[in-house]
Structures are given as C-alpha cells and as structure tokens.
Amino acid sequence: MKIEIIDTFIKDLKIIIPEIFEDHRGYFYECYNKSLLDQNGLNYDFIQDNQSKSQYGTIRGLHFQTCPYAQAKLVRVMEGEIIDVAIDLRASSQTFGKAFTLKLSADNRKQLLIPKGFAHGFGVLSNFAIVQYKIDNVYNPQSERGIIYNDPHFNLDWEIPDKDIILSEKDQKNEFFERNRSYFE
Predict the structure, then answer these.
(1) pTM
(2) Could you say which of 24, 32, 44, 133 is catalytic?
(3) Is residue 133 annotated as part of the catalytic site, yes or no?
(4) Between these two residues, 140 and 184, which has the higher pLDDT value?
(5) Which of 20, 84, 87, 105 is spaced 20 to 30 Å from 150 by Cα?
(6) Choosing from 24, 63, 69, 139, which is the catalytic residue?
(7) What is the pLDDT of residues 54-65, one digit of tens each?
(8) Which CATH number fits domain 9-15+46-183: 1.10.60.10, 3.40.47.10, 2.60.40.790, 2.60.120.10?
(9) Under a CB-based contact definition with an 8 Å cutoff, are residues 167 and 59 in contact?
C-alpha cells in the first residue's frame, strides 16, 4: 500500500490520498496506516475517532482548542461532500491567519491532515454528509474556542446560500478572529 501526500501553501497542512483498489466488486483501501504516515515524517499518535452526520447547509466550526489541549486531526468523508476549512492560528507561522479550503467527499476519498494550532470547520454540500476524523488529544470543554464562520477577515466561500446555512447555538456565538488573538500561540 502507498499514499500520496500533497503539500498545501500552509506548512504542515497536508492532503492525503490513499491508494484505491477498484474492480467489478467495488473498492478497497486503507483509510489510515500509521506506519505509512510515520515513513513520510508525519508522526501523529491519534487516540480517538470522531464521527458526525449532518444535513445540507450545516456548518460546523470553526473550532479550536487552546494549549495544552490543542488537537491535530485527520479528516475524511465517508458519505456525501463537504467543504473543509483549516485556519492557521500559529502566531509564529508565515501563514498565520490564513485559511485553506478543500472539498472532501466519499467519491474523491481525499483526507486533510490538520496539525495542532489550527481552527477547523466544514460545511455540508450534499444532502447529508458523514464525516470521520481522528484526533491526537482529548477534548477539554474549558479550552474550546471558536471563530465565527462568516468572519470578514477570511471571506470564506462556503458554497451554501445564506438562507440555507444551519448553525448550532454554540457556533452562533463564536467570536471574530481578532477577538480570539489572546488564545493563539
């Protein structure tokens, strides 16, 4: 087995494309292989898998956890399609405050490897989407923070009309990027 690793314009943020074996019966692939990531210098110790199912128009995020509970994530879509967003919150990074977006779907089978120090969120573009992601640190409610999805600093195109956007009560209260500055490394 092998994987393709694509660098993004943000250091350490990677697109992972697994090798797919398809024939008349369907397909097979390894969704995750720690050894292959390690061989490519991507040494993560993922401790938990999370999964969500969301309907069209749902935006989850943009979430992050402060140190020492910051989390790296490996995100993939099991059904449907999303627009995935990662924002570099590492104050020492040359791309601090920059956003990266990528469509992830059950069809393209791409994965996004998001290191610690990023805010993360996604918007559902299909009728529904099942998203699965690995994390390398425990969830701590006291260290969770959020950036509002429509922050003008990023001018994100969620590809969802405003009238169709669905947010949780918690995500409606997320702060603007500038108000979160004190939490960044």
Answers:
(1) 0.94
(2) 133
(3) yes
(4) 140
(5) 105
(6) 63
(7) 999 999 999 999
(8) 2.60.120.10
(9) yes
